[in-house]
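Final report, Chapter 2: Outcomes

The project's central promise was a pipeline that accepts a single protein chain and returns its three-dimensional structure in a standardized token representation, suitable for archiving and comparison. That pipeline is now operational. To close this chapter, we reproduce one record exactly as it appears in the project archive, with the input sequence first and the structure output second.
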Amino acid sequence: MSDKLTILILDDDKLYATMAHRMLKKDFAPLVALSPSNAFNIFKQKKIDILICDFHLPEMNGIEVIKEVSELYPETEIIMISADADKNTVIDALKLGAADFFNKPFNFDDIILSIEKTKKFKSLKTQVHEFEVYKSVVNDELKGRNDIEIISSCSEMQMIKEIMYKVAQTDDTSVLITGESGTGKELVAKSIHYLSERKGNYFAAVNASAIPNELFESEFFGHKKGAFTGAIKDRAGWFEIANKGTLFLDEIGDMPYNLQIKLLRVLEDRKYVKVGSQSEHLFDVRIVAATNKNIREAENENFRLDLLHRLSTFEIRIPALRERTEDIPLLLNHFIKTFTKKMKKNSKKIDAETIKNLSRYSFPGNIRELKNLVERAVILCDDDMITSEYFPIIQNNNTAPQNGEDIFDLEIVEKNTILKALKKAGNNKSYAAELLNIKWNALHRRLAKYDIAVN
């Protein structure tokens, strides 16, 4: 497909139109119309980049043509020509959006120069439009994030909220967020971003464990068109996308060891080079990382100590839901309200006995598991009251002992022992199996039996 500009020459003087077509066809893709009606028929069939329009025309004059084209085809740029236009005609044409004006007879080199100038102007307008679209997307995201709320009444979470606010006030302090899967680490990261001066810029979330080795530079630094097979256009990397904003590196503990040094180097230098380019680009990004692993214990084997120190200028640990059971009723009511509204169902309540039973459950999947359970319950419940029957974990007697009471159900004791081992092992199933003195496949069978999710 040709990438030449399509230029429509609208002039009832056939000699001028033919001459213009001959002069332009080497570098452009010119078309000829001898009347406005003919021109508008061509507009319906083809995308016209530039219209060269005479003032004196049959059917309507050039100013009227400009009005119509500007309204119907605003992406088309217009150059007006005339043999005897007065000053007011020129002014009217330019006011209506004409990019340039030439008196007949004119030098075709001047016309070509004007076309090149108009081409650059069109390119700039396209870039501005793309930026406006990008800004609109960001603004929509910001509007949608203004109601970010961490729902909790426990003292530890209240302290975390205060810490979040304080660290958000610093401009570029790196933050490491730790905690089990499903505790809300990304929510804390977003809250830090939207509490900070960076809130007007982009929050980019990246799964650091999911990027293949061979795509690391392209994903984080971007690439130039033609840098490698498949690079059909320039691409921005995450550091460019998140510039002036926040880059959230989720699951940083699972990032391959050989990639950690690449990340460390760019964080220390505060600059990167796009794949296929020689130019260095500076960036201004706050780094917030998160992990569900205890990378401090594993630092000598799986995680670089120097990168850990670079990421953990400030560290926040999110407690598991079983450590903040007083939040379960609040979260239950919040999710019930959220899902009934989303599903356009009648408002519902949850009975006290169900809340009590759920508060005794260990929630190995934390808030994410609770949210999924509530969503399922709201889908199934057609009544105004949600009861225990809509929660399989209660129906299966998967509850934990409370207030130190003795429990003699071997299955519940076994499940609770497995959960404790997983917690001790930081959700490392191999290590948990060692602690329990059983084979890995035996632990796998028990995880499936008790419906224990390990992320």
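Archive annotation: The chain has four domains: 6-122, 163-319, 323-400, 406-455.
This record, like all others produced under the grant, will remain available to the consortium after the project formally closes.
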